[in-house]
Amino acid sequence: MKRMKTLAIACLLLCSAGLAQAQDLTVSAAASLTDAFTDVKKAYEQINPGVTVYMNYASSGALYRQIAQGAPADVYASANPKWMNQAKAKGFTVPGTKRTFAHNALVLITPADNPAGIESVNDLQSNRVSRIGIGTPETVPAGQYAKESLQGLTIYESLASKYIFGEDVRQVLDYIRRGEVEAAFVYATDAIKGGEKVTIIQDMLLDSPVSYPVAVLKTAEDRSLAMDFLEFLTSPEGLSLLQNRGFRIP
Is residue 249 a part of any domain in this protein? Predict the structure, then answer.
């Protein structure tokens, strides 16, 4: 009987220790990072038993609003500097933790069969094109980049009646895959995700490359754990996972 009690106590202590070691981490990341960060999550959890990483994907602007409204998150990864700079200015990020970890490119794509016969961005002005997928510029970085690029070509306003806006870049990609638009603007990594259902027409000219910053948030329950995730993300192994998904390393 005494031995059974001892074993029960030992088991209870082991279980308690296991529970104490269990840690959760919530990462709010731009929708275009979905595949790459799913890979990063798996690799990080594998080398950190007891840690569970919860991913929250949406447009960078939508994620910023969630953070501003007090939604719990430990790490924020944006698809452009705009929303990260705003988070920093509002005091949501831990000073000294912000870093740029990846670059991307903006491309013009069509469905695989290119029904409108688009050969360049100038063809978007043709009567053959009636629907153009684009992320909402106010909240979706890919849409903001597309707007800036088209404004540089002085054709953004002339195409206004053709825009079909998406809540994030993955929704815009879905427009193309379902054949709901004749053309769309997405990141190069999303075009890769589209596979055989997508034809890349051209890279869009931008004043600066698409940049992805990441930072630890002040709401992080365990800042050392959040920082450890950032260190892994920017390590050779983490960067290799990003490159495998088509991202460019700064």
Answer: no
